[in-house]
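So, can you check this record?

>
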Amino acid sequence: MKKFILSLIILVALVACNQNPNGYTIEGTLSGEVENGTKVFLRKQGENNQPVDVDTTEVQDGTFRFTGQAGIPEVNYIFIDQLQGYALVIIENGEIEVVAQKDSLGFAKIEGTPQNKAFADYIKGSRAIADKAKSVNEDLQNSDEATRAALADEMKELQEEYKNYDVDYIKAHPDALISVLLMDRAIASRQMKYDELQSMFDGFTPEMKETTAAKRIAEQLQELKERDEKSKRTEVGVKAPEFTAPGPNGEQIALNDVLGKVTLVDFWAAWCRPCRAENPNVVAVYKKYHDKGLNIVGVSLDRKAEDWKKAIADDGLTWNHVSHVQYFNDPIAKLYNVDAIPAAFLLDENGIIIAKNLRGPALEAKVAELLN
């Protein structure tokens, strides 16, 4: 009978501790004086990156509490009325503890569930690198020239360490929401190639792939894949895409018909200041090497035909020119994956791309090497 009563007491205690076993509870503790009744908001990012209220509560004796049901883990933010900043918390089922100082919510200590622990671990390692960088930067401000060079190299190493830290963390934690968010940032920075990004994404757990951020990443990866395939069409060593387009007088000009021993396909526009600044150099190279086999095809990304034709005359560009006068929607620009100008492709007599984006002395040196 005693054993039965003891078992019953234990069962009741377990039930009491897990009244909401499938939900989450956020227990917040604030240091510093915050008036009772101060509003606390739990928010998430809605459409157009605007904050959306998920729940509200009030501060009582320096504490606050949220409860609810969580689905796929997602990032929420805790804002407190009349206080600056916010605390980032990952909402998932379980007991989440938030300990913060009222004047520095961004440095709140958040723990209690796997996703928040993973986030805290990442922040700890990231801040360690940032602290080293801060120390090096302070030394840079107070050092002589000889020491400054060594410190600059050390700073570059720290920047590379920081980049590798993110990548290594993503690979080591495929079940962490922070890994998904880091990958989202890596795509935005455009510092990693498609193949590596796709490989990391494939390593995420099924639950992580269902998060809002991961679904956005999947769309971005598809765009990167298409862009990567386009860029491979214009890599050094492949045959340049063929095109036929209208010249200044409406005549059709085909790339294959104007190939020389060496051909420069030059993307430019009348409105592009760097392009116009480079034109005198291209004119000089053309005059010097045209008789030896250099041809040029200028591809204009102008919006107005009159601007295009005037710039040709003003700059003395006496080679072949084509344009659809469609800005960056020009079919040739899309064919060559050009999204910024000036851009240039140097071709051999067979139309094979042998160099890209050479300017100034580098362009002349390469042309001279090929034709002399």
Summary: The CA atoms of residues 72 and 211 lie 6 Å apart. The mean pLDDT is 89.
